[in-house]
Amino acid sequence: MRIKTILALSLMLSLAACNGTPVRYHSDREIPEGPGLLSGPDGVFGHAPADTGGK
User: Do residues 35 and 43 make contact, with C-beta atoms less than 8 angstroms apart?
Assistant: First the structure.
């Protein structure tokens, strides 16, 4: 009787573990996507020199 209970609980636990949503892994050693301190709203750093007036 005890083995059946343990087996049933194990089966329910294994089925419940498969119900989760996948998590997107991001290493803390990589630069995260999105806007940052020096990047614009699109998350890309860009520099366009100011118009010098043809000089």
Answer: yes
